[in-house]
Amino acid sequence: MLGIDPGLTRCGVGVVDVAPDRSATLVYVGVLRSDHGDPIERRLASIAAGLRAVIDDHGPAVVAVERVFAQHNRQTVMGTAQASGIALLVAGERGLPAATHTPTEIKAAITGYGAADKRQVQAMVARILRLDEVPKPADAADALALALCHAWRGGPVAAASGPLTPAQRAWADAERLARR
Amino acid sequence: MLGIDPGLTRCGVGVVDVAPDRSATLVYVGVLRSDHGDPIERRLASIAAGLRAVIDDHGPAVVAVERVFAQHNRQTVMGTAQASGIALLVAGERGLPAATHTPTEIKAAITGYGAADKRQVQAMVARILRLDEVPKPADAADALALALCHAWRGGPVAAASGPLTPAQRAWADAERLARR
């Protein structure tokens, strides 16, 4: 699962491997940067090239991209929206399905609480992935949170209708334990 | 000169050839469409493929993309911003310089009046390119207006500092004539 926190100056990228029991392992985390002084077309091309390299190196099955809202800071929102378009395009061109999640969905999936603050989410990401430290910068941790969010929301427990099977109950328990 | 009026559902594309005397000829005009029901990553990939085909067929030297503003209709602005990112990316990946222009700049360049209405701009585009009819749909005409805007604004007269040379004055006169 590849999570992308889109941005022009810093684009967070996180790859996690999520087992059927929903335990998760860090595969890759990083930040793609583009130079503020470069022309926009070259910045976007450099982000696209970086995203393609991550996909080719790690072969994710799905790409999740944080959803961008127009009401945010107007100065940067257009660049963020353009970067999110690049992320979705690269997924589409590699034949990978893409999904978007809102920050609230991500917070709720990771901490169980949609209004959690960023640091709570980041600390939980470190705990879930059994990391000694919170991944830095924040964009990198956000990308991991997004990948976990999508893996869990799209996973078998979330999609189940009706009562849980014993195996699903075991997964749900493991998830609860991981969140403690 | 390739002008792109970015959009997810309809992306206007216009190629014009602008001579040193600033007279302009229509090379290509069209609209790339993507299906509203398709996943966003496939819609963006289909627009990117269409833009690359236009670039490869017509070999423009420069790409101009209409600038998108966050304050527009929130429902569609994100898709438009993403499509504009794709347009800029494709230019960057083909090694072409890209520029953006605001609707006001385009109107002013084409009609001499930044608050001109869309129909005035479209009628002037048809006149400048010596077309019998206004190109349809509007996105196609807008893309041509953008290409003309960039050719003229970025051209030698606009860039000149100090008094015009006789040749520059001749260009400026030809431009004024074309606008009558």
From TrEMBL, chains A, B:
InterPro entries: RNaseH-like_sf, RNaseH_sf, X-over_junc_endoDNase_Mg_BS, X-over_junc_endoDNase_RuvC
Assembly information from the UniProt record: Homodimer which binds Holliday junction (HJ) DNA. The HJ becomes 2-fold symmetrical on binding to RuvC with unstacked arms; it has a different conformation from HJ DNA in complex with RuvA. In the full resolvosome a probable DNA-RuvA(4)-RuvB(12)-RuvC(2) complex forms which resolves the HJ.
Subcellular localization, as worded in the UniProt entry: Cytoplasm
Residues of the active site: D5, E66, D139
PANTHER family: CROSSOVER JUNCTION ENDODEOXYRIBONUCLEASE RUVC
Gene: ruvC
UniProt keyword annotations, A-Z: Cytoplasm, DNA damage, DNA recombination, DNA repair, DNA-binding, Endonuclease, Hydrolase, Magnesium, Metal-binding, Nuclease
Binding residues for Mg(2+) 2: E66
Protein's UniProt name: Crossover junction endodeoxyribonuclease RuvC
Lineage: Bacteria, Bacillati, Actinomycetota, Actinomycetes, Micrococcales
NCBIfam families on file: ruvC (TIGR00228)
Residues spanning the membrane: none
Native species: Microbacterium pumilum
E.C. designation(s): 3.1.21.10
Cofactor binding summary note: Binds 2 Mg(2+) ion per subunit.
